[in-house]
Amino acid sequence: MNKRILVNVFFLLSAVFINRGYCQQILWANKVLGYSSENRPVQFGHAFRAKQILGIPNKLPDFGNSPCAWMPADPDGRNEEWIKVGFDKTVALKQVAIAENFNPGAIARVYAYDESGKEYLISDAPAGQLTARGRMLRIFPKQQNILANAVKIVLQPSKVSGANQIDAIGISDDVKPIEAVINIAKGPLLKTKRENMGPAINSQGQEVAPIISPDGKTLFFTRGNFSGNVGTPERQDIWYSKLNEKNVWGPAINMGPPLNNAADNAVTSISADGKTIYVINVYSPDGSMALGLSRCFQTKSGWTFPKEYKINNLRESVTASNKGKQVESMETTVSPYGNVMIISVERNDTEGKKDLYVSFLQPDDSWSEPLHLGNVINTADYEGTPFLALDNKTLYFSSHGHSGYGAGDLFLTRRLDDTWVNWSQPENLGPVINTPLWDAYFNVPATGDYAYFSASEKVSGQEDIFRVRLTPETRPDPVAIITGLILEAETDKPVRSDLIAEIKKNNEVFTKATFDPETGEYRLILPLKEVYRITAAEKGYFPFSEEIDLSKDTTLRNIRRDLYLKPIKAGQQIRLSSTMFAQSSAEVIRSSYPELDRIVAAMTNYPAMEILLEGHTDNQGEVQKNIKLAEDRVQQVKKYLLSKGIEGKRIQTKAWGPAKPIASNLTEQTRMKNRRVEFTILKI
């Protein structure tokens, strides 16, 4: 596993910066109109190509070699090299800024063009070697009234030893010097500081890849170059630390076999309930390892042997330098809900080296072929160490391709829609977190208060694990944590059960979990702003559903819900949801179909089962109308069951109207409980 993952980003946009009370319009090139040559060091990806000059600077204000810059094919060629770029608007030209990120000084001439294509020579200066590593070259044309929408630069590579790279070209209608800026998230600018996790976790070896459990009480991490590892000290093992009652992290413990062996081992993600962990590589019983992903389940006696979690067509990935060669490493984050995975891997559609991809869980319990996340996030440099937060939309990752502070910075971006390829512009997490050295592997628990990450600056040995208090701007959206037991209704005995959380408005399965009395309470973590239906199911019991309304919540919620299952037997009465029908209507709303489908499933599994459907209302309005409404409702439920193949002779109906209330009719909240349909198992 690589300890370092870097990222680049490619932007096709113009930018407006506001400073000191006035607006300076800065346009960055958004199209290549022509060029003499471009460097193509590898077959796949777009490193150093002409398109890399477009958009805002990817390297500046830092300097140095970057595949996100245009570089001519021959670094020291005798012939002149040139590139011409266009802009999406015409401006009264006052300034041209050229971001020379590596080996500056080769630019000999600069031309501007108006809408008619007329050419203006705006700079003619001798090219020559400079001592600076890079610079923002600014040209202020002496000519007046040039209405420019294109610029051409001419280089003399032979005048400057080594590769000449251009990060970006900008123009402005103002003489205020154009600066390259880092897109910093607001939060880290506040007064806070990062904390080294101390000797309980960090050693003289290497500590990277922290994975914090959603409840914030267990920290998994990878330790290398350490004599206490299962394999050789140079290899990496999985370790963990527990937070005790005094809010202090205990001494790190090696997880031991079977998770740790003679190869490199690392946890990459953990489920929302903390009972499933995902680890890199595919484990074989003989101790050998292969590229891929595995998962382990918590049991009473410990973690199970890692089992492969297949990713379709992962091994069709190629390296840019050798078509058909299998990728040597990858990094992943499995959504805490277990249905989406973000992968850092190199494939033949990469922008550069490793890019971020998305994969979706399939009905056969495998993962779909990775889909590129797009060029808002991915660039011609490295992208890696992804972490998808519990809100299922905030993604943290490390990058060397967006403007930053050094050798790999941490960024955040937020998913904008359900395509998973449309993301907000990445924001640098700022100088409190990012340093001139390597920073990566961001991880956040459900509370969103602290983040845990790996860094290289001010460490006790090699890389260490740090934490930092997050600000509202850098936190994921808040969530609700639902915990509890699943019990048999008649005995209060815990019952091992499967759980499903569905989004009520569209009946979409959002996440699944399992309650096992031997491993403790169930835990579901759900993003806010939705109404969910939670269903517990186990063989021999009728599934139980309960709604969790989070549609109006705005802050973290902790909810305790014990669920009760009723055995399937003659005489058992089961109450259906009180929100199955619209107000004063007999029509079954679509969101109630899954609940009725569970009746269908039970009657299918028990072919001799016969039931009685009973309809009830509140006492508002005329009694006869309420009885008629109750009759219409049970008939609609019966009609639905018949449409699913259940024989009519197995279903009896009875309409009670307001005659059998189970709650007061004094308030709307209690009257809702009286508006219900119940069914009783008559025979089984």
Automatic annotation (TrEMBL):
**TM stretches of this protein:** none
Looking up Pfam families in the UniProt record yields: OmpA, PD40
GO cellular component assignments: membrane
Q: Which Gene3D superfamilies match?
A: OmpA-like domain
Going by the UniProt record, its keywords in alphabetical order are: Membrane
Q: Does the record carry Protein biosynthesis as a key word?
A: no
- Name of the molecule in the record: OmpA family protein
From which organism does this entry originate?
A: Dyadobacter chenwenxiniae
